[in-house]
Design brief:
The protein is an alpha/beta fold and 341 residues long. The protein has a 6-stranded parallel β-sheet, with helices on both faces. It has 2 domains: 150 residues, Rossmann fold, CATH 3.40.50; 138 residues, Rossmann fold, CATH 3.40.50. Helices cover 36% and strands 16% of the residues.
């Protein structure tokens, strides 16, 4: 294997959690070039990965919404760039029409994709020369690693290595005078994934009492209003300005603690090795969450909404022992959670 393309187009959390595939491929095939294909919105994530050699991206989401000529030209240019490289294998771990089209356009002789019943859109099956079956015995993130490993004949049984390097800001995003930052990611695009406002208020007050500078990010007017509702009852908390994805990543990188619902930025905190608590309400924390001993944990889910006491207990857990050093973050997904969920 000389050159491999990995395709994971969206969304933020999924693209982040797929990054360990790159380190796996580099270990399995020394000297291999690994490129990545994704939507332009999430290209920064792949660019942050020191193991990714080239990122192919296009404004797919934006073109779908606005149908602008400039975006069409950008997509056309990205196709030319994609076809300039010869891939020994193309691994589509997304499984929808847009990812399948990218795979097909490479003209590679080995294009791997899921079996029809496992695809997000079954019509995507036209693009593949080889099929793989998603692993069901592990969580979603380890499953992506194992699926690629099974297809190419190696094992992905070492801890996940994200290898993300966030560019440093010219000056601190938030100047707290040395007070540790706790970020509360309360916002999510789906209402049923949200955690009640009064519980966020209680956690914000608790963290302030523990000496944290509590900060609330937001990305839309409605999310800003939700943050203001928390701050009305916990005025010690800090409403952040609207920040870019890169600026939020820089702030996460500078933080001491991240507490968030099932959102891409909480997954990024885990990937960056931060002390992280993820709160699940409707989706499975076992299938979609993160666990790393004494550093990152996911609680709730499957219709069970965590209490304030359970979240505080989880915060205590991720602060109970220093995380292991050595450059590799995350833990094998097969490992049983060390806290009750």
């Amino acid at each position: 294997m000389k050159r491999i393309l990995v395709i994971k187009v969206t969304s933020l959390g999924d693209v982040i959690q797929a990054q360990p595939v790159v380190a796996d491929l580099k270990r399995a095939f020394p000297g291999v070039v690994v490129d990545w294909a994704c939507d332009e919105v999430f290209a920064d994530v792949a660019l942050w990965n020191a193991g990714v050699d080239r990122v192919h991206c296009a404004p797919l989401r934006r073109f779908k919404k606005a149908r602008r000529w400039a975006d069409f030209k950008a997509i056309f240019a990205s196709i030319s760039d994609l076809r300039a490289h010869r891939y020994d294998a193309v691994m589509d771990i997304h499984g929808v029409y847009k990812s399948a089209i990218i795979a097909f356009l490479t003209r590679s002789a080995r294009r791997y994709g899921y079996h029809s019943k496992n695809l997000g859109e079954q019509g995507a099956a036209f693009a593949y020369t080889d099929r793989f079956v998603p692993r069901q015995d592990v969580n979603a993130w380890q499953g992506m690693r194992d699926t690629v490993a099974d297809a190419l004949g190696y094992r992905a049984d070492s801890p996940a290595v994200y290898n993300l390097r966030i560019p440093q800001p010219a000056q601190p995003i938030v100047d707290t005078g040395g007070v540790p930052i706790a970020l509360l990611f309360h916002a999510t695009s789906k209402d049923d994934k949200k955690w009640p406002t009064d519980r966020w208020v209680a956690v914000a007050k608790e963290l302030h009492q523990r000496g944290f500078h509590v900060a609330l990010p937001w990305g839309s007017p409605s999310e800003r209003e939700e943050a203001l509702k928390i701050i009305e009852q916990a005025p010690q908390a800090h409403l952040l300005p609207q920040l870019s994805v890169t600026a939020i990543a820089q702030l996460i990188d500078a933080s001491a603690l991240v507490v968030g619902v099932d959102t891409g930025f909480a997954h990024l905190a885990h990937a960056l090795g931060k002390r992280t608590v993820m709160i699940f309400t409707v989706t499975s924390s076992v299938h979609s969450g993160n666990q790393a001993p004494y550093r990152s944990t996911s609680i709730g889910g499957d219709g069970v909404v965590p209490t304030v006491a359970e979240v505080v207990e989880a915060i205590d857990y991720v602060h109970s022992s220093p995380p292991a050093d050595g450059g590799e973050v995350g833990s094998p997904a097969r490992m049983e959670s060390a806290v009750r969920s």
